[in-house]
Amino acid sequence: MYNEQSATPEQRKIIHSLVKAGNPAKGCPHRFAWLEEFVDWPDGKTFGYFMPLIDTKRYVSMAEIESKRIAHPGYGIMVEACRQLAECLRELHIGGYCYRDISKKNFLLNPDSGDVMICDNDNIIIDRQDIGNIKGTTSFVAPEVILNTAKPSTVTDLHSLAVLFFHLLCGGHPLHGKKERETKVLDVISSRKLYGLDPVFIFDPKNRSNRLPDEKGYRHVAKQWKVLPVHIRNLFLKAFTSGLKNPSERVTDIEWKNALTQMQDLHHVCACGAENFWDPLLHQQSNCWHCSREVKYPPKLYAKGKSVQAMLVISGRRVSTLHFGDKSGYHAVGEMEENLQDQSFVMLRNKSKETWKATLGDQKADVIPNLSIPLVPGLVIKAGVNELLVYP
């Protein structure tokens, strides 16, 4: 139920519209606590709506994690949460809606699986519809909205989404460096300058005016930034340099989804228990960020199609059409499985409808659908017009 000050005719119209239209996120409706029924208070002074009850034993807020009331779930879980958020916001945008208030307070996540639940959906409006007065959470809002030169839209959502991902993966704000440190009071005037008039990415390679201070409260962001694979860092650089003031340069939700899926393929746990990411774009891999020792990565599988993508050979991971460069969708063509007879290598099961041609040195074999083959270094698999290659 809204308080009387918030129960405006515009908000009434928004709620009626969302209830009537139903959840537009057709690919992941279960990840939205959608508005199900409009409710008028008997005295007519206010109104509200029903939504599904969220199981708070399974889902927690970022506030609970950041306050350490709940243990941090780890990089792998946070990457999965980001991937799902990108997927859900893409579905919302495809449906012709914008969220308007993407921030770390408007979703919950399952710390065991990374599953997300998007909660405050009464912010949502038809894209570029000029209704209501919600602009979003100031530190997440796009510069043009801060400066009142544009209304919230799917394009401004993309900026907020990038800020959210930076929070989840680096544990800080992309614009909170020297400028924020020197701001004595973060009021309306200073917020307008920091987020709207003169926003500078803390890792901007050309503009060093907003670098991270070398002090507690900032060092962890620099440390987590170095853990990220290069392709994810490059997306953040795009989002917070050219994308800051040029909305057409922003990273799209599908770009984030594909990049985060690839990031999951590179995830590996060091012998010390710390989570690292093998990076195919680095000639020399850095040592474990926690124990500083060399990380012993498993063999790598390279998928060659319209593009080349790499993944670590770990049981449970899947090879999909996305790995071969098909950006339009995700369809599994192979699945890595544990070898119960010899755990020194992993098996790859053919989940496609075509027979693969496998070669290892002078040996050749057909891998028919649903048959598996050991992923040993030197193996080459012809999967139609695509190839899979295993390296040490």
Q: What this model shows, in words?
A:
- There is one protein chain.
- This protein is α+β, with helices and mostly antiparallel strands and 392 residues long.
- It is 28% helix and 19% strand.
- A hairpin with a 2-residue loop joins strand 18 (380-383) and strand 19.
- The protein is globular, with a radius of gyration of 23 Å.
- The termini are far apart.
- 35% of the residues are buried.
Short characterization:
The protein is 28% helix and 19% strand.
Topology (SSEs and partners):
Blueprint: H1 9-21, E1 37-40, E2 47-50, E3 60-61, H2 62-66, H3 75-94, E4 97-98, E5 107-109, E6 116-118, E7 125-126, H4 143-146, H5 154-170, H6 178-181, H7 188-197, H8 219-227, H9 230-240, H10 242-245, H11 253-265, E8 267-269, E9 275-277, E10 300-304, E11 308-312, E12 318-320, E13 332-338, E14 346-350, E15 356-360, E16 363-367, E17 372-374, E18 380-383, E19 386-391
Antiparallel strand pairs: 1-2, 3-5, 4-7, 5-6, 8-9, 10-11, 10-19, 12-13, 13-14, 14-17, 15-16, 15-18, 18-19
Helix pairs in contact: 3-5, 3-11
